[in-house]
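Same chain as my last thread, 153 residues:
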Amino acid sequence: MDPYREYQDYVMASRLLVALGLSREVLSLSHYARLRLLRMELARKGDWRALEGLDQRLRYGFWTNPLRLRDFLKRAPAAPYLASPEAFEALLFPEEKTRLAYPGQAGEYYLGFLRLPHLLMDPEGFEAALREQEERALALPLFLNTFHRVQGP
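reply #2:
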């Protein structure tokens, strides 16, 4: 996976959790990268307990793991940010929204993952949903301000 896309997915999961009062942390790109390297080392050593804790902090698999999504949806069943793609995009800064191809693009992508827990018992539907998400991912730009910083005077 593209490390920048992975970080963008992390940030969107973190912003959502912070907005819902379920977390207080959004790591900078450099801090995330350091912890991601630590995660690789823990996996190599087989330190599963430490790895699980770090995975929670890195939101590893938040969008793609149907079991984690199911647990999240139980904790936040009526979250306003999940009401529509446009509602989800309230989590973006105005300049980030301008980088999208159309309003709701990021919301469609991230909210599209919320179907996965309901499709666990439907392998064909699950595969179709994943293919659709892959297509959305290809069209979704890197929109975070972190990736578009311009050096000042």
